[in-house]
Amino acid sequence: MSISSSRGKSRIVMHVDLDYFYAQCEELRRNDLKDRPVVVCVYSARGGDSGAVSTCNYKARAYGVKAGMPIVQAKRLLREQDAVFLPVDEQYYTSVSDMVMAILRANADAFEQVSIDEAYMDVSMRCKDFDDATRLASRLKDEVRTSVGLTCSIGIGMNKLIAKMASDYRKPDGLTVVRPEDAKDFISRMSVGKLLWVGKKTEATLNSMGIYTVADLAKVSIDTLIKEFGRKMGIYLYNASRGIDEEPVKESAMAKQISRITTLKRNTSAIEDMLDDLNTLSMDVHKSLVEQGLLFRSVGIMLVYEDLSMRSRARMLKHYSNSMDDIARYARVLLEEALEESSKPVRRLGVKVSDLVSVKGQETLQRFM
Ligand SMILES: [Mg+2]
User: Fold this and answer.
1) Which of 140, 218, 233, 264 is the most buried (most CB within 10 A)?
2) pLDDT tens digits for 58-95?
3) Sign of CA dihedral 120, 124, 126, 127
4) How far apart are CA 214 and CA 238, in angstroms?
5) Active site residue: 26, 27, 112, 118, which one?
6) C-alpha 264 to ligand 1 mean position (Å)
7) Has 341 been annotated as catalytic?
8) Which CATH architecture has domain 10-20+92-180?
9) Span from the CA of 150 to the centroid of ligand 1 (angstroms)
10) Looking at beta carbons, which pairs linking 203-208 to residues 24 or more positions away fall under 8 Å?
11) What architecture (CATH level 2) is domain 22-89?
């Protein structure tokens, strides 16, 4: 379904980018990292300090550390500082990302997660104008901060190109709104390297042609661009320099998981205070599952404690199911187990189903089960 055509006026697209994500996740689970340079590293198999910086926080950036830099070089730059070097913990970052994405997904007409820390949201239907979308974005920033504990930067524009450049414009913890009437001005001032899809190589070629800003680019004929960069990239650059981008926010064909998360009315470790919410979450997950014609094989819960630490638990079923009863029953068992393990008061509670298949494939699957 095309959202733009149902509206007849310009689209409203958000790009959400979680700030210095891996390093922020590490700050989240370790209070003692807050005021220190934090560098998350991909250590190579050679051992020692061989490898590269994956992400670092802004305190590390202040000393010139950046992604892609050899670990040895980062250590040299931070030699005098109380810096922390940590290995990438993909599994933990994914669980944090899942919680943020669940919040965002529930607030979008169409939702496209592009990486562990980035997503596009089409909000053209639920927001009547850009003011409305700005309020939604502030609310989302608040919710991501209070319930997960992370900051993000959001850009709002009439398409993905503008939204992406807007989120990049003010970081960290930014909110940049580029109204359609301001879009051309906004991008004209940018260097061409800031355009989506323009990598180092394309940027160098453009610079060698005397093209530095997007305004410079907009003066080049489409024929010249096609000759230099090929048809697809040439046309893209021609349009991009004018702020034109028709790419829809693509709902991924099949969700990898369906999750819902909520903040409890008060922090509690008593299961009876959570059962209503657990049931509502299970019903919401089930509704979405049925709407998308999917079956699940794994049920999970997510807990965010009062101190913002988190835990998730999941259980694999013997068969694929689309039963509301299975979701609610297993979610409750998992919650009981989690509460036995820790008596810390719970602040947020989530339910998810994963390992999904579409109902269409069910016949084939059942023959093998
Ligand atoms: Mg990011």
Assistant:
1) 140
2) 999 999 999 999 999 999 999 999 999 999 988 788 88
3) positive
4) 10
5) 118
6) 28
7) no
8) 2-Layer Sandwich (3.30)
9) 11
10) 205/229
11) 3-Layer(aba) Sandwich (3.40)
